[in-house]
Amino acid sequence: MQKIRLFFLCVLVVLNSCVSSQSPPVDKFGIFEIALKSAGNYDNPFMELSAEAEIKKPDGSLWKIPLFWDGDKTWKLRISPDREGEWSYRIISADRGLRGRSGTFTCNPSTLTGSIQPMNGFPHHFQYQNGEKMWFMGETAWALFNDNEEEKLDRAAFEHFVTTRASQGFSAVHAMMLSEAGWGNSGGMPFLSMEEQILNPGYWKELDSRIAFANQQGLVVGLVLAWGDKNKKVPFPWRLFPDVEARKHYARYIASRYSAFRVYFIVSGEWHGEVNTRPGVEADIRKEFIAIGNALDEAEPHGRMIGIHPMTSGGSVREYNEAGWMSFGDYQQNYSDLHSRILESLTFAKPVINSEYGYYLRDQNGDGVPEKDNSTSIESMRYASWDIVMAGGYLVTGFGTTYFGGNRDPGPFDVDVAKNDDWELQIGYIKKFFTGIEWWKLSSNDDILSSKTQRGSDGRQLGRIAPPSTTYWLLAEPGKRYVIYARGLTDQLILKTEFEVSEKFMAQLVNPRTGEIKIIPDAYEIKDNFKWSPPDNNDWVLHLFKQNL
C-alpha cells in the first residue's frame, strides 16, 4: 500500500510539472501576466527561491526572464510581447509548484506604442517601439510612488498630477523607486529590512498600479532603482544592501517586475554619493554599478533603455558609455554651460538628456527668494531649456512644488499652484514648435552663425547660476532647413550658406514667450549668406525652410 501511495504521489508531481494552459489573447506591446503558486515553505522567498521563464516567440527566438515574488506563495511572470502570433512559455525552478508549468497565448495587432528606444537612423532622438517618433519632454517626479500626509501626497494627488502633466504635453516622468526621504506608500515601506533583504510586496504592488496608470495616460516612466548615499543621510541607499550580489539580486527583481511596462531604467540616482560613504576609489564604485547594470540588462528581455544619474560635481555620466547597457550618451545633472555640455556628449550616437537643470521657483527655506540654479525666474528657466534643445539635447524639467513631493518647497505637493502656470505653458511651446517640423533631421551648426556681438557666458540671478543673457544658436538640415535662436541681440546675425545659386526660403518668426508662430509673407532669396536682425533683444526663433519640404 505504501508503494502505491508513493507511486500516485510521483504521478501527481509529474502531472503538476506538466500543467499547461491557454491564456487569453494579449495586445502587441500590452502586458501578459500569469500568477503561479509555489509549493515549498520559505522563510524569505525573495532570497531563497528563484524561477525563470523560457519564452518562445512566434519567430522561434527565445526570451528569458525571472519570475518575481508577489507575497505569500505567489510568483508572477510579466512580459510585453512585441511580435504578433503564438507565444509559449515554460517555467524553470527548483520548486515543484512552479517547475515545468507552461502555457501559450496569442499576441494580436494593436495601436499601442510600446516603450521608448533610440530612433532608427537618427540615434540622438527617440521613438516608440511601434516606430512612432517621440519628443522627449520629461518632468522630475521623485516622489511619484510615495504617500506623505504632511505634504498631502496620496494616490488621489498622484493621479491628478499624472493626468495634469499628460494633458500639458509631457511625455515622460522619472521617479525614485526607493525614496531618498524615507517615505513609503499605502502598501507600507519597500523593505522591512534592506540589510536582511526582507522585501515588502505591498509597497511594490502600489508601484505596479501607479506605473500602469501613468502609462495609460501616455507617460513613459523612468525608474531610479536606488540612490547613492550622500553623507549617510539617505534612508534607502544602495549601501544598505549587504554586498554586490544582493544589489544585483534586487536589480534582477526590478527587471522582472517592471520591464514589461513602458519604462526606462536609471541604475542609480547620484551614484557618486556611494564614493563618499563606502571604502574604495571612484573607479571601483563605478565598476560595481556597471555590474549592477549588467544584471538588470541581462534579466530583462525587452531591450528597455538604461542609464545612470550623476551628482552635480562633474554633472555627467559620459564615462558609463563603456558599459554595454548604457543607452544614453549622457543623463546629466548639470546647471552650467548647458549648451556646450550637451554638445560634448553628442559624440556618442545616443540620445542626450539633461535630467536636472532647474526646479522652477524652488524656495526651500521659504524666505520668498527662489534659490535653485536656472530657476529664479521664467526667463532663466526658458533660456536654460532652449539652450539645451538648441544643442540637440532633451530635458527633464522640474517645478519646486512637485519635484520631490513638495518636500523641498514651502506648502504641500501641488501641481495646480498658480506660480507654475507660465512655465507649464512655455515649455509646451518648445514641444509645439519642434514637433511641427522634422526636428530629428536637425543638428547643431553654431559655427556658421555669427554676429558682431559675442556669445555670452553664464551669469548670476539672485545669487544663483543663470544662463547667458546674450547668445545665439543654430540647428540645421543644411540646404533645407535652419532654426536660429537668439536673445539679447541688437546686432545682425549672419548665417553662412554659400549656395552656388540663389535659393528661395520661406520663414516663420516664433515667439518663445507666447508660442505665437508668425508666417513671414515674403520668401527670402539666399545665396552666399543670410542676414537677420531680431525684432528686439528678447528671445526669438527664426525658422527658414524650403517651400517644398
What is the count of β-strands?
Answer: 33
- Indicate the overall shape: globular
In terms of DSSP E residues, the strand content is 25-35%
If helices are DSSP runs of H or I spanning 4 or more residues, what is the number of helices? 10
- Can you tell me the CATH topology of the largest domain? TIM Barrel
For the largest beta-sheet, the strand count, sense and barrel status come to: 8 strands, parallel
End-to-end C-alpha gap: 86 Å
CATH top-level class of the largest domain: Alpha Beta
CATH homologous superfamily placement of the largest domain = Glycosidases
> Unreliable segments (pLDDT under 50, ≥5 consecutive)?
1-18
Q: How many domain regions?
A: 3
Instruction: State the strand order across the main sheet.
Output: 19-18-17-14-13-22-21-20
Q: How much helix is in the residues?
A: 10-25%
CATH architect. name of the largest domain: Alpha-Beta Barrel
